[in-house]
């Protein structure tokens, strides 16, 4: 189940970074997460003071500003959790497939989860939040298996290029199916189209509480797969020789990515490119050791989604752009750069 032969030493110029340098970067990234959370609470259609932010954090909602901050709290938390989930899932997918272009959006996993949810809503009248989550996870899992099967056809087996093309074709086909399912249903079309863009607006603590167990399960499985992904990076034969159960290791890591992608898509809609951009940037900072790369990818994913949400609020005030649009503006050029840098003929 390997999609290429990228050695650890060749995968990133950040290989072999010192632990001291990584620790400094970790402190900087944590500080950036805290700062962006504060800005997310303070910035919106209504300007608030820092005293109102602090008062709202203490539970006060006496003024309009404090009430505005209280309404932004779940949105900020959702952006934090969803960004971390997407960043981590992208790093895990790239580790499992050894494919530098692996990403929940590019491989069609997000679109598969979205299609499953749309079918559930349109054909089966699905309304329960837990049903949304389980259906999205099932759709993500089935799509991942389908894309891998298509990408493995042929004599050469799975390659990064074949996997990427299979994912892109699947994503386009499933997006068309979503439109076909929604078109006859004017009663749900508006809500589905808005959800399809991908965003964190309208978040509530209740929605976060419903999806949080799935995100935590994916987080634990993903971070726990770090050593196994380091072994898989050496190749299946060498990993097996070191005592690694290759199929089980890849299965657990894949399950983590599917849980994270499916749960995030259920609550936010399909948000693309976070899982592509973040791991590549983190490799430049901390190298290819997954024990460092995975937690850094989670934190950096939170940074990207928080920053994207803030930019979306500022770019179209008093209205706003959904964060899925902002990440597309960032990720699409990055994807082109990665393809050119990796020289797609050699993938």
From TrEMBL:
UniProt keyword list: Cell membrane, Membrane, Transmembrane, Transmembrane helix, Transport
GO BP terms in the entry: siderophore-iron import into cell
Claim: Transmembrane helix is one of the keywords in the record: yes
Topological relation to the membrane, as annotated: Multi-pass membrane protein
Name of the protein: Iron ABC transporter permease
Keyword Transmembrane: yes
Organism this protein belongs to: Pleomorphomonas carboxyditropha
Subcellular localization(s) per the UniProt record: Cell membrane
Domain of life of the organism encoding this protein: Bacteria
Residue spans crossing the bilayer: 24-44, 76-93, 105-125, 131-151, 163-183, 247-272, 292-311, 323-340
GO cellular component, as recorded: plasma membrane
Family from the record: Belongs to the binding-protein-dependent transport system permease family. FecCD subfamily.
GO molecular function, one term: transmembrane transporter activity
Organism ancestry: Bacteria, Pseudomonadati, Pseudomonadota, Alphaproteobacteria, Hyphomicrobiales
């Amino acid at each position: 189940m390997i999609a290429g032969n990228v050695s650890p030493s060749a995968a990133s110029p950040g290989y072999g970074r010192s632990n001291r340098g990584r620790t400094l970067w970790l402190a900087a990234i944590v500080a950036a997460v805290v700062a962006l959370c504060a800005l997310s609470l303070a910035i919106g259609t209504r300007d608030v003071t820092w005293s109102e932010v602090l008062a709202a954090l203490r539970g006060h909602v006496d003024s309009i500003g404090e009430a505005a901050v209280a309404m932004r709290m779940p949105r900020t938390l959702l952006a934090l959790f969803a960004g971390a989930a997407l960043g981590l899932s992208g790093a895990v997918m790239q580790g499992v497939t050894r494919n530098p272009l692996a990403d929940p959006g590019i491989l069609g996993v997000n679109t598969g989860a979205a299609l499953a949810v749309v079918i559930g809503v349109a054909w089966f009248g699905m309304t329960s939040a837990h049903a949304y989550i389980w259906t999205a996870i099932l759709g993500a899992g089935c799509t991942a298996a389908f894309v891998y099967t298509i990408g493995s056809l042929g004599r050469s087996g799975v390659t990064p290029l074949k996997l990427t093309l299979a994912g892109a074709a699947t994503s386009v086909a499933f997006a068309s199916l979503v439109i076909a399912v929604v078109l006859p249903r004017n009663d749900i079309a508006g809500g589905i189209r808005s959800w399809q863009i991908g965003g964190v607006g309208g978040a509530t603590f209740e929605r976060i509480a419903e999806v949080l167990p799935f995100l935590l399960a994916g987080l634990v499985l993903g971070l726990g797969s770090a050593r196994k992904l380091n072994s898989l990076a050496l190749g299946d034969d060498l990993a097996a020789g070191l005592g690694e159960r290759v199929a089980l290791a890849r299965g657990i890591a894949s399950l983590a990515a599917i849980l994270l992608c499916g749960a995030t898509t259920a609550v936010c809609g399909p948000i693309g490119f976070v899982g592509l951009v973040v791991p590549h940037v983190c490799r430049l900072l901390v190298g290819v050791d997954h024990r460092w790369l995975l937690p850094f990818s989670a934190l950096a994913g939170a940074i990207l989604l928080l920053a994207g949400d803030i930019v979306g609020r500022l770019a179209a005030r008093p209205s706003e752009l959904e964060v899925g649009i902002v990440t597309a503006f960032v990720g699409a050029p990055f994807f082109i750069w990665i393809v050119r840098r990796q020289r797609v003929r050699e993938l």
